[in-house]
Specification:
Layout: H1 2-5, H2 12-23, E1 28-31, H3 35-46, E2 51-55, H4 58-72, E3 76-78, H5 94-108, E4 114-118, H6 119-123, E5 126-127, H7 129-134, E6 137-140, H8 147-156, E7 160-161, E8 170-174, E9 177-181, E10 188-194, E11 197-204, E12 211-214, E13 217-220, H9 230-253, H10 258-275, H11 288-291, E14 297-298, E15 308-312, H12 314-337, H13 352-360, E16 363-368, E17 381-384, H14 397-409
Parallel strand pairs: 1-16, 1-17, 2-4, 2-15, 3-4, 7-8, 15-16
Antiparallel strand pairs: 5-14, 6-13, 8-9, 9-10, 10-11, 11-12
Helix pairs in contact: 3-4, 9-10
C-alpha cells in the first residue's frame, strides 16, 4: 500500500494539503479530482484516523465504499439512510438497521473506522452517544441474573423474543437456559442458570445450535437505534396525549371537516397502542422527540471523535439538501393537514445548521472534479489536483498498449494492479 501512496508525495497540491491539515487551516477545497481518484486521496491524507465521507446520494455512497475498501479493507462502513417519510412502515429492511447499528457500535467503541454516507443519512436523528453506550449490557460469569429483569431489559434494547434463536437481535428462554444473539456478534451465546446464579456461559453456532467454547464475558449491544425504558415510555405517552388534545382543539376551532378529526383520532390511538406496548416497535425512530429531550437527540456525526470530514462534490450535496427539505416539508405538511400526523411528528430530521456548524469546526476537505462557485460552505484555501480517468481497455489490448507507450513517452510513473 505504501507504493500506492508514494506517488502522491510528489504532488504539490497533496503536500500543501497535508501542511494545511496540520496547521488547522481548514476547510480545504480540492478541485480537479475525478471520482476514480477520490478514494486514493482520502486514504492517503488521513491514515489511521476516523474518517467521515459525505456524498450526495446513496448510490454514490456505495461506490465510494467499494473504492475505499481497496485501501482499508474491513475498516470501511456504509451508513445507509432511513427514508424519513416512510420509515414508520412495518416493512423496512432489517439489513438496513443492521448496517446502521454496525457503524454505531464501531463509533461507540471509538474504533478508527471510515464511514461513508449520503447527506440524507446525516440528517437522521438518533439518541446521544452517551445514552447508547450506557445501554450496552455486560454479562460476566460471576453475575446473578433476575430473569424478569433481563427479559424487560432485552425487550427495551430492541431484542425480539422467539421460541428458538435464529438470527441477530433475538433471544429465547427455556427454563433456566437463555439464548442471546447480539447484533454485534457472529455467534450466539447460551447462559445456563442455577437459580439466579450463572452456572455456565458458552458460545453457540446459531446454525447447528452446538456449543463452540466457554466464555467468561458477553457484551450485548442494543438491537435498535432507539432505546426505551419505563420512564421515557411514560413520557412519550403523556406528550402524545397532551399534543393530541391541544391540536384537536385547534382543528375544531378552525372548523375542519369531521373526517380529518377521525383520521387524527385513529392515528393517535394506533400510535399510543404501540408506545404503551412496553418496548420498541417498527417506526419508533420517527417518534424520537416524544421520548427524549432535544439535547439528547443528535446526528451520527456527533458520534465521531475528531474525525477528518470529506465532502464529495459539495455543490451537489447542497443541491440535494435543498431538495430533501422541500420534498419532506411538502409531504409532511399534506399529511398533517389531512389529520394523519401530530405537529411534533414532522420533527424527524436533524437541523442542517447544526451539521454545517460541526463540519466548519472540524478538519474538513471538500473535493470536486470541477470548481464550483456555489458550495456547501465557505473554504479557507483551495488546491488544484491534476487527475483524469483512464480508458476501459478490456478486451481492446491494442488501445491499452498504445496508451502505455504514450504514458511511458511522457515519463509517467505507471503502477499495475492485478486481481491475482
Amino acid at each position: 500500500m505504501e507504493n500506492i501512496i508514494k506517488p502522491l508525495l510528489e504532488l504539490e497540491a497533496y503536500a500543501s494539503t497535508k501542511v494545511d491539515i496540520a496547521r488547522g487551516n481548514t476547510p480545504i477545497y480540492l478541485t480537479g479530482i475525478v471520482d476514480a481518484a477520490k478514494a486514493h486521496m482520502i486514504h492517503s491524507l488521513s491514515g489511521n484516523k476516523q474518517k467521515l465521507v459525505i456524498t450526495y446520494n446513496e448510490m454514490r455512497a456505495k461506490e465510494l465504499v467499494e473504492d475505499l475498501r481497496f485501501f482499508e479493507k474491513d475498516k470501511v462502513y456504509l451508513y445507509p439512510a432511513r427514508d424519513m417519510i416512510f420509515y414508520s412502515a412495518d416493512v423496512h429492511s432489517n439489513d438496513l438497521l443492521r448496517e446502521r447499528l454496525d457503524v454505531i457500535n464501531q463509533l461507540v467503541m471509538n474504533e478508527p473506522v471510515t464511514v461513508v454516507l449520503s447527506i440524507e443519512a446525516l440528517l437522521d436523528s438518533i439518541v446521544h452517544k452517551a445514552l447508547f453506550a450506557a445501554s450496552i449490557l455486560h454479562i460476566t460469569s460471576d453475575h446473578t441474573i433476575k430473569m424478569n429483569e433481563l427479559i424487560m431489559k432485552l425487550s427495551q434494547m430492541g431484542f425480539e423474543r422467539t421460541s428458538q434463536v435464529e438470527s441477530r437481535g433475538q433471544f429465547a428462554i427455556r427454563g433456566g437456559i437463555i439464548d442471546i444473539f447480539p447484533v454485534n456478534s457472529d455467534e450466539m451465546f447460551r447462559i445456563e442458570l442455577w437459580g439466579d446464579v450463572i452456572d455456565s456461559m458458552r458460545s453457540v453456532n446459531p446454525e447447528t445450535q452446538r456449543t463452540m467454547y466457554d466464555v467468561t464475558e458477553i457484551m450485548v449491544m442494543p438491537a435498535r437505534e432507539m432505546l426505551v425504558n419505563d420512564e421515557n415510555i411514560k413520557l412519550a405517552g403523556e406528550r402524545i396525549q397532551k399534543e393530541h388534545t391541544s391540536f384537536r382543539n385547534k382543528l375544531v376551532k378552525n372548523n375542519v371537516e369531521p373526517v380529518i378529526l377521525e383520521h387524527l383520532d385513529k392515528s393517535v390511538s394506533a400510535l399510543l397502542e404501540k408506545v404503551n406496548n412496553n418496548g420498541n416497535f417498527n417506526g419508533i425512530e420517527g417518534q424520537i422527540y416524544y421520548y427524549y429531550e432535544e439535547e439528547d437527540i443528535v446526528s451520527i456525526m456527533d458520534y465521531f471523535d475528531e474525525p477528518i470530514i470529506y465532502l464529495d462534490e459539495p455543490a451537489r450535496i447542497k443541491q440535494r439538501l435543498t431538495t430533501i427539505k422541500t420534498e419532506f416539508d411538502e409531504s409532511m405538511k399534506n399529511r398533517l393537514e389531512k389529520g394523519y400526523l401530530l405537529p411534533s411528528q414532522m420533527k424527524v430530521y436533524h437541523q442542517p445548521s447544526h451539521i454545517l456548524k460541526f463540519i466548519e469546526n472540524s478538519t474538513a476537505i471538500l473535493m470536486s472534479t470541477l470548481y464550483q462557485n456555489e458550495n456547501l460552505l465557505p473554504f479557507k484555501v483551495r488546491h488544484e489536483v491534476l487527475s483524469k480517468s483512464v480508458n476501459a481497455y478490456n478486451p481492446n489490448f491494442e488501445l491499452w498498449i498504445k496508451d502505455l507507450k504514450y504514458y511511458i513517452g511522457k515519463d509517467y510513473k505507471i503502477l499495475f494492479l492485478t486481481g491475482t
